[in-house]
């Protein structure tokens, strides 16, 4: 027993040490980005150093981005896209993945092949645009969330997770009189919370960061999501224009604008993650098997 | 009672029976079909309908003239792809880098996930997870900028290396360092995020197995090796097979940002090469031809990987 | 990126133009140039048209509706839809617009490249040569600029005119003075100055932390082109005369070999940064402004701004800059800087719009007005008190409403600069002086243009980019690896076998044909 305890301790210790080491390595550059976002025009020399902590708390860059006329509307658009988009994503993906996970489903094989095929071949930008255009979705936010409703990769992997649920559970539910819909909503979904939380996170991040579809499918800056605005601001900052946003004051240094952009992009998602944390719990899968 | 039927009747009855079971099947599975319908419609409309556009690869495509009216070019763009004097070098670079990525970058999240899974303190677990996710949110532009700051001739890491005896380390311009640099960069940026899937998969492993192993006297490492790892084996296999489909994709933006003339011998990959050759000028036909070729190669790779996996006893993708 | 810089400058020129006009003694006349004087042909101002325009966005996107749009709608009796696209994805957006049939009436095309020729060939654009003579400002556009957007005899574009002056070399005057050096006039003298800057501690801080010339490399373009153009070596996409009646691409030009030798020496000796291949233009610019390097090349109308000076003085109060006159070429002939193409982007009209003559005239009227500084300027500022306030010193300040919806934000083109450039009168004297000096210096002697402008060759369109990249990559590798100059000859040989030979032949045929006219 003594030796087990010590071997456990050593294992844990080494494990944690290695992980902490890796964490430090990933954290340091992020700290640097954070520090740079607070620099302003008068300490331009600091840009050449590898700062680890802000030398000052100057929110000029954040303010600059905030002051762009469409900051709030673009933030609103992004929130809409993320919420509505992710709901659509999860709904379409999980329902499809569920059916394809049932062993006896007759369409399983060819549907999976069909989905896989789309991961390798696609028509390209213009044909897809023509389809979206033909459906009248252009110039609306729906053009952002519908053409990307299902990610083939996510669907295939989610199906694998669903397949991991013991068939016996589903059989016993069938015997109890549950139909496929019931099984889906009352058994499979609750038992798959970790997987669902994972893909919710994936989809949410993708929706939050998306910009290309917006540029292609919408023509008005009122529909811009946050990422398009941020990219534009960074580009403007790098092009040496005198006060693109506000002609009466010089803009902050381009690098600190760029770093502030990163903060705007990542912080909301980092806030989302702990919220999803509670779904990443063990235990729900297994109680049912024994019963 | 003996029923004699002739052959024709027999066939008709068979088919009749199959049709019967077909309809019965459908009715039995009606809810499954209902659930799969939204996704099917999505794929049909937004993925398969635009696929007619693949024909662009065989035409001299002009967006104004339209897909139908643009003149045919046959295999001209494929020929151009093959005729390019650098095509072999670029292909080789792509394959080597892809191999490195699969060999090194692919497995790091698995190892990390296993390690994180072993942590007993939930707060520490959460802390480490949050921190290692952070680089995923940085754009490659920012990452390239950070690496420049660290590794240029006046950079912090360069000074450290000089202190260790490596004078004049030109990490960013040394062709020999390019591939390792890209790999390290990828690991740093994406390994943390990649653990999410594996951690979710690890939750599906029966904790009783660990108990049993503990009683049998297995140490932590042994438990990890014999229980956790096999527990996620099917997930790993699927992800690996899928990864093979994109074997010719090595990440355009990252490489593009790290390229410079001194490393282009080893650094140029298909996507960056195609970019310089014509995407900038809106040459959609050429891009379509390359995309089609990549798709075919990817298909072959997935098929082989899947076959191999099944051969080895695993379930496979299909 | 090359295009955006001058474009931004144009916007600031416009701003200064507006300031200049406001200071001018002529009263600001807000009434529109009546359509009746513009075109006698059918344009009934009572007919309302829907006008859709697409252009590249260089700043904060203006409001999609509001005062500015309304004012424009009223002035021209149109229903104006202004679509501004972030520049990085413009090509894709252009393609989808043309593919789907939702083609804007006025579209900006960045340059005469394969995209332009393909669309022109397919009949996407309206030929304009018969129309422009009826408009006061459109007809003032120089013919040689118009030639650059002409295809098969038809004019398709209305260019956005920009200053002709191009790159120029800047130098730390205070460093020259401190080390008792005269302004360099030849490449030999330049090299000596660079050596002195690197080795003789020009900033007097006792440390060897300075070097000669700041250079950067991005997207296949070595900055500090101003150091190369005096010896007639242009950026790789530009061509120069080869002295024998023909033309050649930049680094393959007659003096190219000598220049490669020289820059290789510079690199080896440390007169240019060892990292220049990795640096971006903003980084090399910073090296110059913050006192690491003593020489830097940039656009004449861009380089000497108050922001840059402030940045430099903040780091070093003794900072003094000056303009280097064009150096004598390496082969001994007189050197001069190069000229720009005279435009940055041009507007095309959709062929579909051509079905209604009235609409065509309306569209051209809009463009014509915008090219007239005194016509558009007061209109573009909006209402006083709401969108801007007049300051005591004659300058204007825009309110936040002004920054988001005044009519000037929806411009599709810009006024033709009178003379070469409008210098903002509200700038400090020191800046005004050096800006004028920069422009004069850039235009001194016999500045020359990219000889490939308006010269078309099929191989250049098909393979031009990859050949340029191959050549430049090779040149840079010779420079940084310190390879012997014989490798340059080998490089040129290989480059020719890859298709450059054919390209040069075709370009020369086309060039001779063009000049025979």
From TrEMBL, chain A:
Key word Transport present: yes
GO cellular-component term (any): plasma membrane
Sorted UniProt keywords: Cell membrane, Membrane, Transmembrane, Transmembrane helix, Transport
Membrane topology reported for the UniProt record: Multi-pass membrane protein
Coiled coil: none
CDD domains attached to this UniProt entry: TM_PBP2 (cd06261)
Domain ABC transmembrane type-1 residues, every copy: 75-276
Record-annotated membrane-spanning stretches: 16-41, 79-98, 110-130, 142-162, 183-205, 255-276
A GO BP annotation: transmembrane transport
Pfam families per UniProt: BPD_transp_1
Protein's cellular compartments: Cell membrane
UniProt keyword Plastid, yes or no: no
Family as reported in the entry's similarity comment: Belongs to the binding-protein-dependent transport system permease family.
Protein name: Carbohydrate ABC transporter permease
Source organism (scientific name): Paenibacillus agaridevorans
UniProtKB/TrEMBL annotation, chain B:
CDD domains the UniProt entry points to: TM_PBP2
Main location: membrane
GO biological process: transmembrane transport
Keywords from the UniProt entry: Membrane, Transmembrane, Transmembrane helix, Transport
Membrane topology according to the record: Multi-pass membrane protein
Annotated ranges, domain ABC transmembrane type-1: 91-305
Location within or outside the cell: Cell membrane; Membrane
Transmembrane segments: 31-58, 90-115, 127-151, 191-210, 231-252, 284-308
Xref: PROSITE patterns: ABC_TM1
Cellular component GO terms, alphabetical: plasma membrane
The protein's name: Protein lplB
Organism the protein comes from: Paenibacillus agaridevorans
UniProtKB/TrEMBL annotation, chain C:
Keyword Signal: yes
Keyword Nucleus annotated: no
Pfam families registered for this protein in UniProt: SBP_bac_1
InterPro entries in UniProt: Bact_solute-bd_prot1, SBP
Keywords from the UniProt entry: Cell membrane, Lipoprotein, Membrane, Palmitate, Signal
First and last residue of the signal peptide: 1-21
Top-level taxon in the UniProt lineage: Bacteria
Entry-linked PANTHER family: ARABINOSE-BINDING PROTEIN-RELATED, POLYGALACTURONAN_RHAMNOGALACTURONAN-BINDING PROTEIN YTCQ
Protein name: Sugar ABC transporter substrate-binding protein
